[in-house]
Amino acid sequence: MTNTPWEAASPRYKKLVFSAMGSIGLGIILTIIGSLSHVRPVVYVAIGFLVIGMICHLIGLVVRARDTRNWRIANGLVRNPREAKNNANEPGN
Asked: Model confidence over 6-22: pLDDT tens digits?
């Protein structure tokens, strides 16, 4: 196993994290600009970017959890629950 979780992360997770950080950062900047200049449409667009960033962040958490679970199953650290359901009716289980 690698030293940091970032080294073990999948490319999809890394793209989602950077997308989330970029859109949230853009949303914060637009919020500041819109509130200082008193332009409501800019603030509404900023809220949209913040929401998109949060959604990307949540999807990234799901992808990271799925990748971690698949890694643990592949390395024999946890038994695959789908196989356990299929083998539940067999004797000896």
From this structure: 787 889 999 999 999 99
pLDDT tens-digit map of 36-70: 999 999 999 999 999 999 999 999 999 999 988 88
Six token digits for residue 68:
């971690």
d(CA 79, CA 85): 11
User: Vertex 35, ends 34 and 37: CA angle to 5°?
Assistant: 65
Q: Report the pLDDT averaged over residues 23-43.
A: 96
- Asked whether 44 and 63 are in contact (CB, 8 A), the reply is no
Q: In 16-33, which positions are buried (b, 16+ CB within 10 angstroms) versus exposed (e)?
A: bbebbeebbebbeebbee
Q: CA 19, CA 1: separation in Å to the nearest integer?
A: 26
Handedness of CA 80, 84, 90, 93 (dihedral sign): positive
